[in-house]
Amino acid sequence: MGSPQGSTLSTNMAGFVDGSSTRRQVSYLDSLPIYVKELIAGGAAGGFAKTAVAPLERTKILLQTRTAGFQSLGVYHSLKKLMRHEGVKGFYKGNGASVLQIVPYAALHFMTYEQYRCWILDNYSAFGTGPIVDLLAGSAAGGTGVLCSYPLDLARTKLAYQVVDPRQSLQNSVGHIYP
């Protein structure tokens, strides 16, 4: 009980109970400007959401573009075929570009919505605080986000459009090595 490790643990637990150890960590976040917090929150939420739905997004793109072998399949059979041909990694093909596109979009959209809303409320008080203000702020924020992230969305779609069969690429490689 009298070991130095025990006293360190007791000190840490005492700091945790009275809140002094967490105050140091929170004070750093509290010192950030509100728009930085909004950028971080929007970007993190967008990146997590896009990764969660990546398999369905990839399947949707394959079905929309009528990629060979996927044009007459439903969602379930397309997911099975994608798993069989490319494995789990195939579900997330293009997801890196997708996350790179959605993080700035979601961050900008979340932050600019709040900024536009405050600006409208400060400068045009006749609108009140109802749905018209939300519609105007949301429209302006969405436009700002799309304007800044559209080139990344185009790159993501091109990456997700490609389908690779590992057996086929191995046969092509062997064919080029041993003609």
From TrEMBL:
Its main location: membrane. The keyword Membrane applies. It is found in: Membrane. The keyword Transport applies. One of its GO terms (cellular component) is membrane. Keywords: Membrane, Repeat, Transmembrane, Transport. Solcar repeats lie at residues 33-119. It is a multi-pass membrane protein. PANTHER family: SOLUTE CARRIER FAMILY 25 (PTHR24089). Belongs to the mitochondrial carrier (TC 2.A.29) family. This is Uncharacterized protein. It comes from Cinchona calisaya.
